[in-house]
Design brief:
The complex is a heterodimer of chains A (363) and B (327).
Chain A (H helix, E strand, L loop, with lengths): L1 H29 L3 H11 L1 H19 L7 H26 L7 H16 L11 H27 L5 H20 L9 H8 L1 E2 L4 E2 H19 L1 H11 L1 H6 L4 H27 L10 H11 L11 H21 L4 H27 L1
Antiparallel strand pairs in A: 1-2
Helix pairs in contact in A: 3-14, 4-9, 4-10, 4-12, 4-13, 4-14, 5-6, 5-7, 5-12, 6-7, 6-12, 8-12, 9-10, 10-12, 13-14, 13-15, 14-15
Chain B lengths: L1 H23 L14 E6 L5 H17 L2 E6 L5 H14 L3 E4 L8 H9 L3 E5 L12 E4 L1 H15 L4 E7 L5 H14 L5 E3 L3 E2 L4 H14 L3 E6 L2 H13 L6 E5 L3 H8 L5 E4 L2 H16 L7 E4 L2 E3 L20
Parallel strand pairs in B: 1-2, 1-3, 3-4, 4-5, 5-12, 6-7, 6-8, 6-9, 9-10, 10-11
Antiparallel strand pairs in B: 11-13
Helix pairs in contact in B: 2-10, 3-4, 5-6, 7-8
Classes of the chains: A mainly alpha (363), B alpha/beta (327).
């Protein structure tokens, strides 16, 4: 009886193996093509697993809250609520790919929003009815403020050799304090109506918020730069082995400054987006954006040691906490459970990544 | 294979947790009530704060009485950027009515307008937006009167002379801004009292502690402090304790368990207590009225009381004490 069964399962296993063989062979030849290697690289990272987790989570919440979680309204809200975070997380991905970290992003975001709003309201005037010229000026100031902090971070890390954790902790405090000083602790509550309209506007059949489009474009560009350009390869090379990168002729200092500058610039852009969404400087807000961005990047499979990173992973890593947050709120959980769940996912993500890495090294 | 097992285990755990909880969060409303068992949600300004816990207790008591379901949620920080996704998710859950304490009077207009446009009745409790046109009702303490009451009580405590400090949360919060206005306006009637520039703490007690000790160093003649909310009062109390200062008179807004303890121990000399329980009760009443098609009251202002060591144990004052949990 058992003997028959064993041989039957054995034959089933063999037939499955035989059927899978051509698939595996086809995959093998596909993975040697250029497009194939990109696909293979994507799926060899944590991103694929994390994407699976995201899909499963959405199924679970849709099952538990039918007609509430997976609705056009909620998907749009979740996308809008991760847009700002996604933009700074893309910058954070590059920084962490070099083996660094940027703690200052959330407060550089605030600082940029404050300087931008102040310039638009220059001389105490009410900018509510200002035109595009004023808005453009505000945009340039936000980007410029972010860029300045980013360059400072880069200089302190690359040239002064201050560890990134400390350097950006320093600029975190400086940018926060200066934002408070500039604004006198008061939220600037008057912004051009054009900006508020931008924050509320939707494109593509009036369905997708403009800020989401901006965030997706930033992520797409970041993804292409990281995985397909020399800049991206240098970034990962520095993260893998800084000394080796230096000896291979990469100007490591200059590259690090560029990477931190990019992170700062994106924080500036995020600051302007925050102005558009909240129509005020939210000076008491964005306090945990830096840690949320780092968590998203890590959930997305970027190594804390540097050298391994994908923007696709980060994008999913940004979405998972928001899906948990929204799902738990819809289900009527006590709010603190959301933090517990996000924390658990963070550890789970890094643990599976470690397991996979260890297995690969054993091979 | 093992990775897959781990992931599956994780997912199973999450599913089990989600299922078990969703089962417990749906208390049966009881079909006995004549009116429909509406589903209401209370979005607190910040979760876990005794003020909002007490408000939730009042709302729950009234919900049980009226036979409607109540769900309570909120961000874990007083922060509009944290509260926005909470509001959006509640809109997606689509209860019949929502009582909300918005964390910013302007930044949350769009998500709350969207909530109202989705056909959900919105009532403001404690704080409100600049634009209340779409709300069923705005229920709050008469904060201006509270500030005036604080100024009068503090002036009495310091003997109508000296320097006083105001420790506020953040600009742009309608309630605390009104308290400060009431306070500074009333102090104009007390020419021998100098009011220092308002200090902001971002609702962080340690910031209030630092501000208190620093102000003591800069102004040795400091006679009194006015703390505009619970977190600030706790911070100020710690600051005075650190400086072992016993001459400065402190008056604080709110009457949480720790403030009552501080009042009894002489760390603060006066408390301006609101009535969060009453706000919660009125919030549910107004929302249910609106859902049943009754006429609602646009603005409701709840009572305040000045608590001192002498009257804190009076039975009439007990309803003004905030709770750490409903009992």
């Amino acid at each position: 009886m058992t003997g028959v069964q064993t041989s039957r399962t054995e034959s089933i296993r063999r037939s499955i193996k035989a059927r899978l063989k051509p698939v595996a062979e086809r995959w093998g030849s596909f993975s040697r093509t250029r497009l194939g290697s990109v696909v293979a690289r994507t799926f060899s990272t944590n991103a694929a697993w994390i994407f699976l987790l995201l899909v499963v989570l959405m199924f679970i919440f849709n099952f538990l809250a039918p007609g509430k979680f997976f609705t056009e309204f909620n998907v749009r809200s979740m996308a809008e609520n991760v847009a700002v975070l996604l933009v700074i997380a893309v910058g954070e991905t590059f920084v962490m790919a070099t083996g660094g970290i940027d703690l200052s992003v959330g407060y550089v975001l605030l600082f940029s929003g404050v300087t931008s709003a102040q310039v638009m309201n220059w001389g105490g005037k009410d900018s509510t009815n200002s035109g595009w010229d004023v808005v453009l000026l505000g945009f340039v100031v936000a980007i410029g403020s972010g860029l300045a902090w980013g360059v400072l971070n880069g200089l302190v890390v690359a040239k002064a050799k201050v560890p990134a954790l400390i350097a950006t902790l320093g600029t975190l405090g400086m940018s926060w304090g200066l934002a408070e000083i500039l604004s006198n602790g008061q939220d600037l509550r008057y912004l051009p109506k054009i900006i508020a309209d931008m924050g509320a506007s939707r494109v593509i059949f009036d369905k997708v918020p403009l800020v989401v489009i901006v965030a997706v474009l930033v992520a797409a560009m970041g993804g292409v730069i990281l995985s397909l350009t020399k800049f991206g390869r240098y970034t990962l090379a520095i993260g893998s082995n800084q000394e080796a990168a230096r000896r291979a002729g990469i100007n490591v200092d200059r590259h690090l400054i560029s990477v931190y500058a990019m992170s700062g610039t994106l924080a500036g852009l995020a600051g302007f987006m925050s102005l558009a969404i909240f129509t005020t400087t939210t000076i008491s807000g964005h306090a945990n954006d830096n840690l949320q961005a780092i968590a998203a990047v890590v959930i997305g499979g970027t190594s804390l040691m540097g050298g391994v990173a994908t923007v696709a992973g980060t994008t999913i890593g940004v979405c998972i906490p928001m899906v948990l947050f929204s799902g738990f709120t819809i289900l009527g959980y006590q709010s603190f459970w959301r933090d517990v769940a996000v924390g658990a996912v963070l550890i789970l993500a890094v643990y599976t990544d470690q397991l996979r890495r260890r297995r690969r090294e054993r091979r | 294979m093992r990775i897959r097992t781990v992931i599956m285990m994780g997912l199973v755990l999450i599913t089990v947790a989600a299922c078990s909880s969703s089962a417990t969060t749906q208390p049966s409303g009881g079909p006995s009530a004549a009116a429909k068992a509406w589903n209401l949600t209370l979005i607190q300004g910040v979760a876990g704060d005794p003020f909002y816990v007490t408000m939730a207790c009042g709302a729950q008591a009234e919900a049980t009485k009226e036979g409607v379901n109540l769900n309570v949620t909120g961000g874990n920080k007083w922060d509009a950027t944290v509260q926005k996704p909470v509001i959006d998710s509640v809109t997606a859950a689509h209860p019949d009515g929502v009582m909300v304490a918005p964390d910013d009077s302007k930044a949350l207009l769009a998500p709350l307008k969207a909530m109202s446009d989705a056909g959900i009745k919105v009532t403001f409790v404690d704080t409100k937006l600049d634009d209340t046109s779409f709300a069923v009702s705005s229920i709050a303490t008469d904060n201006l009167a509270g500030g005036t009451l604080a100024a009068k009580t503090l002036a009495q405590l310091v003997g109508d002379k000296g320097t006083v400090l105001v420790v506020n949360v953040d600009p742009g919060i309608s309630t605390t801004d009104a308290r400060v206005k009431g306070f500074t306006d009333e102090m104009k009637n007390h020419p021998n009292i100098t009011v220092l520039d308002v200090q902001y703490t971002h609702d962080d007690p340690t910031a209030a502690t630092t501000i208190t000790t620093a102000t003591l160093a800069a102004h040795p003649d400091l006679a009194g402090v006015f703390a505009t909310n619970v977190q600030n009062a706790e911070g100020v109390a710690t600051g005075l304790k650190q400086a072992s200062n016993t001459t400065v008179k402190t008056i604080a807004f709110d009457a949480g368990p720790k403030q009552i303890e501080d009042l009894n121990n002489g760390i603060v000399q006066g408390l301006i207590a609101q009535d969060p329980y009453g706000i919660g009760v009125a919030g549910v009443q107004q929302t249910v009225l609106a859902l049943n098609g009754g006429s609602t009251t646009a603005t409701i202002q709840t009572q305040l009381a000045a608590l001192t060591k002498d009257n804190v144990n009076d039975p009439t004052m007990q309803k003004y004490l905030y709770k750490a949990s409903c009992s």
